[in-house]
Amino acid sequence: MLTGLLSPDALKRAIVMLIVGFVVGTIVEQMRLYDDQILKKNRELSEANRKMEALNARPAEPGESHQGADKK
Length: 72
Hints:
1 helix; about 0% strand; rod-shaped; mainly alpha; about 70% helix
């Protein structure tokens, strides 16, 4: 029967598909934001590690002792 109207079952399926699409899209967006946060934190930690390595690699200043250097 072609009356030009949507059947209730087709309308229900369309609404369910819209809801599923919205939920999946929201989950994917949250995952992307979480991944971006992780990448940002990793960059910050890598920079901090490079700075720490640079500080640990420099020679000691006169009068400055390293940990354990005064032990006998």
